[in-house]
Amino acid sequence: MPHQGDDAEHVNPEGEAAGAAASPGGDNAGDNPAGQGQTHQPEGQVEADALAQAERILNDAGAAGAAEDQAVPPRDEAAELKNDLLRLQAEYVNYRKRVERDRAVAGEMAVVGVLNSLLPVLDDIDAARQHGDLADGPFAAIANKLENSLKTYGLTRINETGVEFDPTVHEALIQQPGQDVEVDTVSQVLRSGYKSGERVLRAAQVVVAVPE
User: Fold this and answer.
1) Cα–Cα distance between 146 and 122 in angstroms, integer?
2) Per residue in 161-177, pLDDT tens?
3) DSSP SS3 for 167
């Protein structure tokens, strides 16, 4: 019996030692089921990272919205741009019309200036023709060519008789009683007048017959 007691005393310390050696591992396995080597972040740092990520997402969304707003102008801005374009187009059309009108007027005035400078030459031709100096010959042909050339620029002669006196195209130098006339009538042309289109270059100097 004393021998059994010694064996029990000898075995118990070893069991206690084995249990003491196994208990730390068992406790660690229960505390860390996933294994060793893992680290845990503090709760404050996790919340800060989440807030930073949410702020970054909001900033990215705001930048995308701003780029879209710049790419597509608002409706009011588009209407204003359209009105500006229409106004610019109208101003350009008016400018073209004004330039074309000024160009036509400048060309007409140049022609009028040349015709006015040739009126004394035409007066000399008329005087020579009335005296019979241009009845025939080369000078008569030249005079006819000159007059025909000037007609292409709209030059017309005012030398009709028997028509009603018109102060816009006639200049009355002499008035005398006329027979069988009811209104003032041109009875004789002393010097021919000329027109270029509707523009009177020079009024005709005439004798006017007035009713008795």
Assistant:
1) 9
2) 999 999 999 999 999 99
3) coil
Q: Which residues pair with 195 in a beta bridge?
A: 156, 200
Cβ atoms 162, 195 nearer than 8 A: no
pLDDT at residue 206 in the model = 95
70-103 in b/e form (b: 16+ CB < 10 A) is eeeeeeeeeeeeeeeeeeeeeeeeeeeeeeeeee
**Would you identify the CATH topology of the domain 154-212?**
Nucleotide Exchange Factor Grpe; Chain A, domain 2 (2.30.22)
For 29-68, b/e burial (b = at least 16 CB within 10 A) is: eeeeeeeeeeeeeeeeeeeeeeeeeeeeeeeeeeeeeeee
Find all residues with CB under 8 Å of 177, minimum gap 6, and list them: 209, 210, 211, 212
Task: Please give the Cα distance from 205 to 89 (Å, whole number).
Answer: 51
Positions of E strands within the chain: 155-158, 170-178, 185-191, 193-196, 199-202, 204-211
Cα–Cα separations (whole angstroms), residue 131 to 134, 138, 139: 8, 16, 14
Domain assignments of the chain as residue spans, ordered by start: 73-153, 154-212
